[in-house]
Amino acid sequence: MTRIFWLFILFHVSYEQGCDFEKSCASLQIDKYWGETSGEVPFSPDAPSQDHTYQNSSGHYIFFDLKSVSTYTNSIIKFNDFFNLTEEQSTKCLKFYYIFDSNYQVNLNVKLIMGDLSEVKSTWLTINSFTNSTKNWTLAELRLPNDAYWIQIELDLSKYIPSRVLLTLDDIFISTECSVKTPQPRNKVLYWCDFESNNCDLENTMRLEWKRLKALDSQDQSPKKDHTTNTENGHYLSSSKLTDSNSAYIERVISPPITIPDDGIPYCLSFYYNTQLNLEKQATIYISVIHLNSTDSENQLNNEIWSNYKQIKYNEWLWGITNLVPGEIKLGFLVTNNQNREISAAIDDIKIHSCFSVNYPKVYGDYSDYYFEYKCNFDRDLCGFSKSCINLNSEYPSNWTRIKPENNIYPSLGPSVDHTTQSNTSYYLAVNFSLPLRSNFEARTQSKPIFTHSEMCIEFYYYANTEMFSLNSQSFFGLTIGGCYATTLNLNYAFQNYSEPQWTRVVVQLNSYACRNYLIFYFKGADIIKKSFAIDDFRVYRCDRIDPITTTTVTTSTTTSKTLVTTTQNTTIPISQTTIETTTTSKESSSTTKYITETTQEISTSTTSLKLNSTQHDKNNSKLVKSDLFLPFL
């Protein structure tokens, strides 16, 4: 449901806020680094002998006390009241008088703060101790934008503390007598959802689902009142109860397409959220922007634009806000539980609106982007895989390259075709063995960041070959994770027991933690025997969207000279057992054989085989568990 009007519910405004420091000041929160005095009791030899209010020595003002500062910090004066000027017709401004000087440049900033976690901070006025140095009372004035925010005056000592600072303030007030009286544009709302009528076409994408809920029907620790109406008859969007049985699962909804216009007006996403604290643990909410005009049509980039990672209040509705960039987008709302507790979360009053108190952003930062699903066949480019993610502890680092079969450094070792098209004209990712071979080298390649969770599976095909059959080769390749929980996956495959090389499918299921990670393929060579190693058709998807091989099939392949029929026993196995799919190609004929093995007993065979030993760490039992090529990580 989209509504084109504006509503803020919880705020009140008084236009008499401020202090002249002649009596007790209830309008401001002043931190411990400030003192109050008069001209009759100067705090230093160069302190003003008169205040600004009365212009005499009996009047009072506040001063910054440098002697009270022991560490790098920001000294803050903040208005107690929240200012909601979204519907104001008259002009409002902040005024105060200052004296400022120092022996090293520092800034006194006026910031507008939005969000209960102070998520959005915009500096609207800066007074520099060199550029704006003065020893007489000087007026500072800021025209206040028509928006909703807290006002904060901040002395920035976060990088350097001068040995001498003279800073005094007086007559800090909100005024209607402003030097600039040009009316500001009225606020605009592009999207608003309060969940009172429906769920606003939000689409669930995971097995566990967000649901529209009436507060009266809430259970356990879910909010007993919504935010919009503040009654038990109101509605909000509620997550499922996340428990230890679904730890590392996620719930995610995405919005319909939304256009953020490039009209010179900054826009923000505002919303209210409520998380329930249980045994000092909380659900984590992430909000991301999904780019619809991306040049990568197959993979949708998500920019994380907000999370409640530092939340300090629980079981109450809090205001969240973040700025948006022009473009065609969808919004993603995601909640996770990595804490093994019964935890839930709720969201209400989602709005996209003009946001005049923030700077006009042009791009999102890439420090927090990630993908939920990702696929790459390397035919177009590297898909964000690094060519060299070097382990600096390796004495002889190597790298990876995107090549065609016809460009193999060792053509006799293959592969003669890629996996995607089964031709010699398409690409795959391979270890670059054209470098000088050493007896000890390592090559790593790292994916773009991916949000891992319990419903995720990693699928890829690899090809491995060597010029000499060896039972004792110490070379191996593997897959690991780097990021927020880097130790949860470490799979190694040793080069042993070859009969014939082929493209081999690997499916790995993850269910340890839900967070932003990187997937890393690595190859470690332990001898100077010529080798070939390649990866193709990499994919990260929900496990229920990656076809498991639960039964063997009869496959017929016909050539001009003969027909090859391979038959195996029809068998169904649980998803936790091993599955292997092997494709073999020769000049005379091409056959595809699907077969299944358990971890200790081979139950079907074919004319080709590849057995690679692998190990994975079972954290619950603290032991190494032998497995094959379907690897649910438990």
UniProtKB/TrEMBL annotation:
SUPFAM superfamilies reported in the protein's UniProt record: Concanavalin A-like lectins/glucanases
Keyword Lipoprotein (UniProt): no
A cellular component annotation (GO) from this entry: membrane
Biased composition regions of type Basic and acidic residues, renumbered to the chain: 219-229
Region of interest: Disordered: 219-239
Signal among keywords: yes
Highest rank taxon of the organism: Eukaryota
Pfam families registered for this protein in UniProt: MAM
Domain MAM residues, every copy: 17-180, 191-357, 374-545
InterPro entries, per database record: ConA-like_dom_sf (IPR013320), MAM_dom (IPR000998), MAM_domain-containing (IPR051560)
Bias-annotated ranges (Polar residues): 230-239
Cleavable signal peptide: 1-18
Annotated source species: Brachionus calyciflorus
Record Gene3D superfamilies: 2.60.120.200
Organism placement in taxonomy: Eukaryota, Metazoa, Spiralia, Gnathifera, Rotifera
Keyword terms, alphabetized: Signal
Identification of the protein by name: MAM domain-containing protein
PANTHER family the UniProt entry points to: APICAL ENDOSOMAL GLYCOPROTEIN PRECURSOR, MAM DOMAIN-CONTAINING PROTEIN
